[in-house]
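Teaching assistant here, posting this on the class forum so everyone can see the example we discussed in section. The complex has two components, and the goal was to see what a joint structure prediction looks like when all of them are supplied at once.
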Amino acid sequence: MRNAAIKKLVELAEKDRNIILAVGDLGYGVLNDYRAKFPEQFFNAGICEQNMTSVAAGMALEGKTVFTYSIANFPTLRCVEQIRNDAAYHDANVKVIAVGGGFAYGSLGMSHHATEDIAIMRSLPHVTVLAPGDLSEAEAALELVYRTPGTCYLRLGKGGEPRVHLSSDNLDLRYGICLMDGTKVCLLSTGGILSEVKKAAEKLNIAGISTALYSFPMVKPLDQETLYNCAQKFDLIVTVEEHNINGGFGGAVAEVLAEMPQKKAYLRRIGLHDEYSSIVGDQAYLRNCYGMSAEKITQTVRELLGEKA
Amino acid sequence: MTTVELAYKIRRHAIEMTHASHASHIGSALSVADIIAVLYGKVMKFFPDDPKNDKRDRLILSKGHSGIAIYSALAEAGFFPIQELNRYYENGSNLSGHVSHKGVPGVELSTGSLGHGVCVACGMALAAKLDKKQHHIYAIMGDGENEEGSVWEMSLFASHNKLDNFTVIVDHNNGQAMGTCQEALGFTNLAAKWRDFGFETVECNGHSHAALEKALLTHISEKPVCVIAHTIKGKGVSFMEDNLLWHYRDPQGEFYERALKELEVGWNAQCSN
């Protein structure tokens, strides 16, 4: 996902010399191509995320479009006030990219797990929040944050994610993207967990539970119309995110559904249940431990429907 | 208008605005008044009728709590009507206690949380360098603000990138909210620290306009510049000078009358010199 987005950034930087990429001393290897091609449009801010973000805001106020790049919580939580006051409040074209959303950095430990970033970034006014679900969405998301005026947050996976959509052509990330239709259950996914959620939807359908699947790469602004329609149509809506269920994508969906005057569906959020991920393990292992693997999602849905797992 | 007259007017507005609004940060506004007067009166290029003109020099007030001093200077320079200053702190006005850019022509950046403005200014300097533009970027920060780690992140970055179009001015009045800088974290010798972090660093009397002008206009290296301006918090009003009480207190009644009187006496004395 990381490489797909950076490849797109290289394409854009070639055409727009006002694109600047700032990194917090991370990205060695991944960014070599960009760096070699555009030395004037690149700088290493050092291990200084606060200054990196403010510098990006200052450059953006002078007409640049500045991407800040680091991993996990470093470009977001570490410098959230800089994003709030310097970038977002001034509607500066600062595009924050975090690689390693959720448990992508696995055994490196909880410091490197981004599990509250969506909630925190989504709470900032004037910040667009994207968590693409696969390589195609990541390419389209990079282009979308570039074209969206103001401050944006782009949460990427790390590497090795499968491609769920065939290509990024015709993907409109501003709306919930229907990958599978159904009648009873609706799974809503954001971020790199998409491939697991898709497997779960397939399993449920095979088991005779008609299940729809939507990918929501854009968490803010959120496509309310699709949510309204889903809430009228399905019995059960389940959000899945590699993130705390509080305040994140599931929280955002809950806010919309709670304010609907009438709806059919009830909502369940799958994600991290307000805890830190202290277990040691790789991404797949942690997803399973915290109930986000295809098997666990399937099991949760079946239990919710009153079936024995 | 001479810089001395501008400084007098900034101080006078500051007393009147804090009096009328029952708000403050008067001590800090009085300590920075001469720095701002010299910048607007002598050093900086700006265009009140075209505030966003790309050739303007940029001034970022990183110590956002001295907003009244900037608002006063901008009004006196013609960016907006002087009577607008009467609306400082008022419900529904544009002039918040910490400096705000929204609806206030001439303000580059809203600040208030310390350790932000200098870093944004640094980004503006880097952008100007890349685009080979000739304007200069100034940032004024407080001395207590040096306790923010982001300031040192910035100083490494600015010197590493040889941002010689960038000047940081430290309003070194030695007063913070809870006491002196020494009492807070015991830091001493700011100039040595800035020099070590790669800035061409000069110290001067922050109330001497000649000294400030020289410090701000002299630049001998490829390095960014740090001017440590030694100032007195509450400068110009005897009972406020170096008095922690007046970090955040508004002058009322007799204090108000005396403050204005003292400023006037000081101004008259300078006029007759």
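For the discussion questions: The two ends of chain A are 33 Å apart (CA to CA). The mean pLDDT of chain A is 96. Think about how each of these relates to the inputs above.
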